[in-house]
Fold this sequence. Notes:
- By secondary structure, this protein is of the alpha+beta class.
- It is 32% helix and 18% strand.
- It contains 4 helices and 5 strands.
- The chain starts with 6 loop residues before the first helix and ends in a 7-residue tail after the last helix.
Amino acid sequence: MANYVPRLKKVYKETIAPELFKEMGYKTPMQIPQVKKIVVSMGVGEALGNKKLLDAAVADLTQITGQKAVKTKAKKSIANFKLRAGAEIGAMVTLRGTIMYEFLDRLINVALPRVKDFRGIKATGFDGHGNFSLGITEQIIFPEIDFDKITKISGMNVTIVTSARTDSEARALLTKFNMPFRK
Length: 183
């Protein structure tokens, strides 16, 4: 287990990186974009009234990603939402290294194809700096989640942070990973 290399990382090193190097005309291998980290977060607005929902969200995220999720707190008070600064209203986990590649592999090849009427991801989730965000409406698309033990179906946000300088570089990188973008 000590020298285990995720499938997607091997594919990146052996085929994706050399292809991008050639296609983009980089001068040095250090310019080739790569996935730095993946942040998976879940906002649980109803957690103000029911703390069990937040614990369930943390448990779901931990199960999906294979890494312990942390609770997130509100940064400022919003009276209309009965929200106070410091109230716990969500959960998030930051993935790097081996776990990151494993999660990306499962997201692209297992979870996304399980979405009903799936026609691909809109390519509008790029932020202008080479990072990509997508929203998932149901956490049950992941095979790790036991459908019978779900208290509430909730969505999640997945942000893929890359070292790409532009959106086109990031899109080329994610397309090589077989991210199912709409045509």
